[in-house]
Fold this sequence. Notes:
Elements lengths: L1 H5 L7 H18 L7 E3 L6 H10 L3 H10 L4 E2 L2 E2 H6 L2 H6 L1 H7 L2 H10 L1 H20 L18 E4 L5 E4 L1
Helix pairs in contact: 3-7
Amino acid sequence: NQGYKHFKSMRGTAPYFEQQKLRLFSMIRQLGSPTIFLTLSSSEYAWDDLIISILKTKKEIKDVRELISQMQCEDICGLSKAEFQKKDEHFIRESAEQIVQSMSHPERNKFVNENIVLTTIEFQNRIQHIFKLLKIKGFIDTSNKYRLDDSFIRIEHQVRAYLGWFG
């Protein structure tokens, strides 16, 4: 039982999900059945702003240069990859959007998967923003008849590093 107890706070374990289930059942007993159920899935591979921000977090310019050298594209910002690589650090960092635009889908997917912590943080921030909006009086309707009062959130990763929100 001691081992079971310690895993209650570790996401993805059976004790964690058991604890979450009990929390949800308790909430339903106190508040009644939910009136809305919402499932959101991230589309992290299509979020250019996410990929740009991850690229900008790279402290070492050599990491960015290495990424560029491995890309399949012929040019970036109208320059050949070789010419682009010769540009100074400031120019390369300011060209993050063009670098991302030049990435193929498999390159984007690989880059996102290699930076899963930042991707997860971004997804959680977006969920929190949605919840803030849903709690604002009059956001859903002008008569303020509908708004979010209580919620239960579960965020999980799928096998392919897919983020999903269930609540």
